[in-house]
Amino acid sequence: MESSDRVTLEHLSEARKAVAVMRSRSMLAAAAGGLVFSALLAGMWLWLRPGKVAPAVFIGIVSYLLFGLPFLLRWIFHWRKIYRRLAELEARIKAGEVVEGSKVSFR
Fold this sequence. Notes:
Blueprint: H1 9-48, H2 53-94
Helix pairs in contact: 1-2
Keywords: Membrane, Transmembrane, Transmembrane helix
Protein name: Transmembrane protein
């Protein structure tokens, strides 16, 4: 095993920083995507039925609850899983185990 392939605590620190940036971007995109989708549905309703604001608001809220929120929750659970695996990897390294980067998988 090459020493350049070993995962150290410094590598994990760098990985956590990169993951934090990716997490914030994807969470923002997921939250905004759900809101945009709901707004488009409400806007389409208002375009088809001008003046019917209450049903448009209802459609927007229900579509976010049925589509946007589950999409956001899926990404929340995805990133929690990645952070949990990083914590497990950190525990293995702190326990003295030699961890090779080529054998680390998050799938």
